[in-house]
Amino acid sequence: MSSHAPFWIEILDKSGGIVSRQRIVAAAVSVGRGYDNDLVIDDLFVAPAQLRIAFDEEGALWLEDLGSPNGTFDVIRQANVKRLLVGDEASVRIGHTGVRVRRASFEVPAALSLDAPHAGYSPLMSIGYGNAAAGMMTAFIAFVALSTWLSQTSEFKLAAYLPGGVIFPLVVLGWAGIWTLITRLVTAQGQFFRHVALAFAFMLALFVLDLAADFASYAFAWIALQKWVPLVVWAMFGALFFAHIRAISPKHDRLVGGIIGALVLVAIAVHVSLRAESDRIQAQRISAKLMPPFMQLKSPVPPEQFFKATLALKPKLDEERKKEPSSGGLSLSDFD
Amino acid sequence: MRFLVACFTFAGAAVAAMAATPVVPPVATTGTALSASAEAIYRDAKPRLLQIRTLLNSASQKSSTGSGFLVNADGLAITNYHVVSQHALEPQTYRMEYVSADGTRGNLKLLAFDVINDLALVQLDRGGWTHFEFDQRALSGNLPRGEKLFSLGNPLDIGFAVMEGNYSGLVERSYSERIHLSGPMNPGMSGGPTLAASSRIAGVNVAKAIFAEQVSFLVPAKYAAALMSRPRLPEPLTGKLTRAEIARQLAAWQNGLYAALDSKGFKPTPSGPYLVPESAAEWFTCGARTNADAKPAPRARSDSSSCSMQNWLFIAGDLFTGNVRISRNHFKALDLNSFQFANFVSQSARLSGDESNAKRFTAPACHEDMVIAGEPDGKASHPRLRVMWCASAYRDLEGLYNVSMMAVTQDRNDEAVAMTLSMSGTTFENASRFAQRFIAELKVAP
């Protein structure tokens, strides 16, 4: 009988991800561990003859337990069933394996808009994780190589390119490997390229942030900006963890986001409270990283204005000298 | 060249008991010259000499030793400020003691000090002393060059000694007035007198040059004489009072210094395409350095020079102040693109502080911006500058700061000059005014 509309059987992992999917055109299929079945499932908790999925005379599709010792569990009703009518869809668990049956009439939602990301969507999806990983890695290596070259003041040394070209990428791949392993332990797919793409995107963002901060402090004389860079880095770290965890399961976005957000806030709070100390030490070496003169975007101030601003430092210092010393001051051994 | 302040670190050797010598009657007021021989000088001077010790109150152990000399019969004596500085700054922790030539000891009280000329006036606990007179020619600055002088004191705490030297005039190119003595001086002699052949005071031992032989320095007698009439410090002495007095003296002194620097003005000095300011005052000692002969061959030239006033005033063992330094570093790209050159300049020209002296200074507060001075004045216009300014406050000396400023020209892709101005122990206002004048003098050569 081939007048029945075909249907699909999907094998799911624990978190609901699809491991395999098969189109069925026959009127009946058997599912179980035994090799006499139409669909073989390698799960030691599944009976050799576990399930039969078949159309009846009226054209209704039924799912029937064949007397397995562990039974067939209806995920929707949350109960063991002997027989289950498949409407558009049925989802059961046999042993540790999820089985979902969907008929051709099953309706899927409309396509998502690329402009409106939502749960389960990753921007990297649209270009493919493999391409994204290769692209991010290339961009990162190229960026680091370029900035190494532009900052090189001694003669050419290949060793100067070693960190950006080899060491960082290897560390990033190792990091992505760890996440892949974790992902694979929890779900059916490790999603290596997705993790690689995320990790390189993070590293690239880190370097771009650093450059942007240097640029802003030179071009606009926003020296104080440098202070905020570490805080942004913490937030970026949080985002990286969020994205990695999301690759494992997008189901708990809010919970994961909330926990990571809270951890980031704690890290920033600790950082700021420790900064009072580290700031003093860093301030010993002031240096705007100079850039070519054409990159100045702020018009220079007249000296009167500059020195007026320096006078404003006096009350701050007078306040400071009353406090107990904790770390160094400026002495005049400054020129070499 | 750096000056080692003689003596104050020395301690520990046992004091040899001095045999009392017959007391020579006080020097006659008629001014008749006594024997010029060192032997007679020594015999005559010995009862008027003192060893001055600073002791740790809790342990009664010597912390430092120096010398001093009596200037009146009631027991008024003069020494160096640096000999008594520990007691002056922390009177609760350190006390002072004198040992006279006959071995008698007693307590000393600090009456006044002159931190600029490194002098202190102390009072012995009893009177009835023979004492020195000041040499009139020394007071009026009329000692002839080459005149034999006799430095007295207790070198290395091994007994009173006399050493011969020659008067070589005042130290040239020095803002502070010091006598250049061609003769030896040793730790422990600080605060002792140097006598003219008349057996009268020509100056007070203060320092010697290290890395040099027989180059020593005296504070001219006139400052010691002036100290005797200074108002006395209030009693009881506290560290707070002393610090306030030091700050007051330094503030007044640096007002004079910056007014003098200001009136001397700057001489424009060519440096690549720029005219950079150099102080026209003669008190600076300069040195230069280049990377031209570095291996491997540098990809940018860096030629630097630094001019320093060599004007360090002793405040405490770990605190010297009063110096002004002007440095410049001229950079020229040989084989670097504009990004690489900017990075080269950033690496080479930076202000950095010394983290170790948190006890004395606050952490620096800094300001940084792009600056351009004035309109083109026809002949020379001003380059765009990246200016960084940092100041640290002295914790113990209210109103005084260490200030450093660096200005890097920012108008060329392949050439720049970085000027650094470092001022220690200044008021904010003087530093600001001097630095502003300095910036205005940095120009593009016509």
Q: How is this structure best described in words?
A:
The complex is a heterodimer of chains A (336) and B (446). Chain A has helices spanning 129-151, 162-186, 192-219, 225-248, 253-282, 303-311, 313-320, and strands at 7-12, 18-24, 28-32, 39-40, 51-55, 61-65, 72-74, 79-81, 83-86, 89-94, 97-103, 285-286. Helix content of chain A is 44%, strand content 16%. In chain A, strand 5 (51-55) and strand 6 (61-65) form a beta hairpin. In chain A, helix 3 (192-219) packs antiparallel against helix 4. The longest helix of chain A has 30 residues, at 253-282. In chain A, strands 2-1-11-10-7-8 form a 6-stranded antiparallel β-sheet, with no helix packed on it. Chain A is of the alpha+beta class and 336 residues long. Chain B has 7 helices and 26 strands. Chain B is elongated and about 80 Å long. Chain B has a 7-stranded antiparallel β-sheet with strand order 16-17-20-25-24-23-22, sandwiched between helices. The longest helix of chain B has 26 residues, at 239-264. The model of chain B is unreliable at 1-35 (pLDDT under 50). Chain B is an alpha+beta fold. Chain B has helices at 38-45, 81-89, 136-139, 221-228, 239-264, 338-348, 428-440; strands at 3-5, 49-56, 61-70, 76-79, 94-100, 105-114, 119-124, 148-153, 161-170, 179-182, 193-195, 201-209, 215-220, 266-271, 274-279, 285-290, 300-308, 313-316, 319-321, 324-333, 351-352, 365-371, 385-393, 401-409, 415-426, 443-444. The interface between A and B is large, with 55 and 79 residues. Strand 12 of chain A pairs antiparallel with strand 21 of chain B.
